[in-house]
Specification:
single chain
Amino acid sequence: MKKIISFISLIFSINASALVSDSLGDLSDKLLLPMSLLTSALYNMSLAIGIALLFGALIQYKNYRNNPSQVPLSRPITLLVFGLVLLILPILTKFSESALLVSRVS
């Protein structure tokens, strides 16, 4: 039991010493890397889900054309709107980030 406790305390002490930085800027750089990975993953997931929703909207519209009484028209329209929002949202954020960088330089 003592070995397990000492091993766990060793792991925590290694992680604590890895987070010690010389300045506040170094600390913010260490914290921004995981956030940039998370945002890029969210951008990619948003694009993938948006494409899937657009494809689903096309399939639902085809089903509506075959049998209008079974599939309401609101379903493909809703899927189309959500798919377009999920496709446009990452693109707009990329443009706004680049605009912020340009305004900071000027």
